[in-house]
Write a structure and sequence with these properties.
Low-confidence stretches: 1-23
Structural class: alpha+beta
Largest sheet: 9 strands, antiparallel
Radius of gyration: 23 Å
Number of helices: 6
Distance between the termini: 51 Å
Number of domains: 1
Mean pLDDT: 80
Number of strands: 11
Length: about 260
């Protein structure tokens, strides 16, 4: 993909922004800043000392997911998806993967992936960095409720993505997609990477244990500008949340029937 130059005219002078005027904090603001800094420092010291003096962390053998995705989900048939060499190289050796590419034979396709951490918790990370490295731009993001048959509501983070591609004919096309993800621990789920870290640190400090977190994701292209009869953004989001409702009880243990957990 080529990038057009912004201008053919030489730039002779770049105007400089005026320096911002210096402002002096009020005594109340300085006191508030002092207390906030002190609290953060105390928390950091407590967490640091717990890592130094606590016995080795007890990594929970039990996870919140089964690492086998179903072949059939409603009208969808899922083929095994590739785990890339980059994923194997960059993630810890005890990381587990499950991935299938699903197709309902009507042109509706999506990919479901699960990444499960082992003893090394660095397997689980914010997906935003990886997506940016793959050339996607995150246009917007929001939390999406997914009502489940159990009566529970799963909350997932939805990223709206775009990137520019050049076709074989030289046309420039904007490709759009949705990326839906959430994190699963043992009897806990969250769409927030920050909350996952807080829960992990709490368990490490208070209970001296570490969850085997799983990172679950769904990916689908918005196809209304890619093929006749393709789905609009709203239709794509509906397709993904409906698929999530169907597939979650097949692998997320907290949502599985009791008989299927044994």
């Amino acid at each position: 993909m080529s990038v057009a130059p912004l201008s053919s005219e030489p730039v002779s002078e770049i105007p400089q922004a005026a320096p911002a005027p210096e402002t002096e904090l009020s005594p109340e603001s300085r006191l508030s800043l002092f207390w906030r800094s002190g609290i953060v420092l105390i928390l950091a010291i407590v967490i640091g000392l717990s890592y130094v003096f606590n016995p080795p962390i007890n990594v929970q053998a039990k996870s919140g997911v089964l690492m086998e995705l179903p072949v059939f989900v409603g009208d969808y048939f899922g083929q095994q998806g590739e785990i890339t060499a980059v994923e194997h190289r960059l993630l810890p050796k005890d990381t587990e993967f499950a991935r299938r590419n699903y197709d309902d034979s009507k042109g509706h396709m999506l990919t479901c992936s699960i990444v499960l951490s082992g003893a090394d918790q660095s397997s689980i990370h914010r997906p935003e960095g990886c997506l940016d490295g793959q050339g996607w731009t995150i246009v917007s993001q929001d939390n999406v409720p997914v009502p489940l048959d159990s009566g529970h509501t799963l909350v997932a983070r939805n990223l709206s993505l775009e990137r520019q591609v050049t076709t074989d004919t030289g046309d420039h096309v904007t490709v759009r997609a949705y990326y839906l993800y959430w994190f699963v621990g043992n009897n806990v789920t969250t769409p927030s990477h920050f909350q996952r870290i807080l829960l992990s640190n709490w368990d490490r400090v208070i209970h001296n244990r570490a969850h085997r977190w799983a990172y679950v994701s769904l990916f689908a292209l918005v196809s209304d500008n890619l093929r006749p009869g393709g789905l609009s953004p709203d239709e794509t989001k509906t397709m993904m949340t409906d698929f999530a409702r169907r597939i979650v009880p097949t692998f997320q243990i907290s949502e599985m029937p009791q008989s299927a957990q044994n």
